[in-house]
Design brief:
The chain is α+β, with helices and mostly antiparallel strands. About 45% of the residues lie in helices and about 15% in strands.
């Protein structure tokens, strides 16, 4: 069974796989599934959850990060002690995050780094607004057999174009230039969180629309 199938069954046929609807039970099952796949099924998922919920890295297990986002006070509380009214929303949140992780992973045929997931999520959220403003947006993924995975986002405003390449190692490279000009600005850097990646993406967007 693949991770995407697991999410489907936990949404539609949960009691075929777990004994009850507690969040802690679902977490234990998902953790067991990951362990059975030598930890590769959810490789990078914890980082994705931390970025989505906290905006940066943490030492907490992803289940506790999700729990802390909805339960008012998790101090000293085990997952098994979470009040019943939180079980359904926590489980839904977990499955939504895994779905997002799976969709990005399928693009390359291998587990996706949380930074690359963040790039694709940003483009999905902002593509409509950029198209409405007359911008053309393209996103490309490196072939799945590359040792270093990367996602490239290109934004074309007609007179100016920009590109941001993000590697799974945390390296980024931004290029800005005019269509009818030989002047090209290139800037490189390093990122650790999705929030930092999004700052670079907004810089590209602002860079191609400057003066328009």
């Amino acid at each position: 069974m693949e991770l995407g199938e697991l999410v489907f069954h936990l949404r539609k046929r949960r009691r075929m796989y777990v004994l009850d609807d507690r969040f802690s039970t679902v977490v234990a099952f998902v953790d067991g599934f990951n362990a059975a796949h030598d930890g590769q099924a959810l490789a990078g998922f914890g980082e994705l959850v931390a970025d989505r919920v906290l905006g940066g890295p943490t030492g907490l297990h992803w289940a506790y990060v999700i729990a802390n986002s909805l339960v008012p006070d998790m101090t000293g509380m085990r997952l098994e002690e979470i009040p019943p009214q939180f079980n359904a929303p926590l489980t839904n949140r977990l499955l939504d995050l895994i779905d997002e992780f799976v969709l990005a992973s399928r693009a390359t045929g291998q587990p996706m780094n949380h930074l690359l997931v963040g790039v694709e999520a940003w483009v999905a959220r902002h593509r409509g607004a950029m198209v409405e403003r007359g911008l053309a947006v393209e996103i490309e993924r490196s072939p799945g057999d590359r040792s270093k995975q990367a996602v490239s986002v290109g934004i074309d405003a007609g007179g100016r174009v920009g590109q941001l390449v993000v590697w799974d190692s945390g390296e980024v490279e931004m290029t800005l230039g005019g269509v009818d000009s030989d002047e090209v600005a290139v800037e490189a850097g390093d990122v650790e969180t999705v929030a930092q990646v999004e700052q670079w993406l907004h810089r590209v967007w602002n860079g191609v629309t400057a003066g328009s």
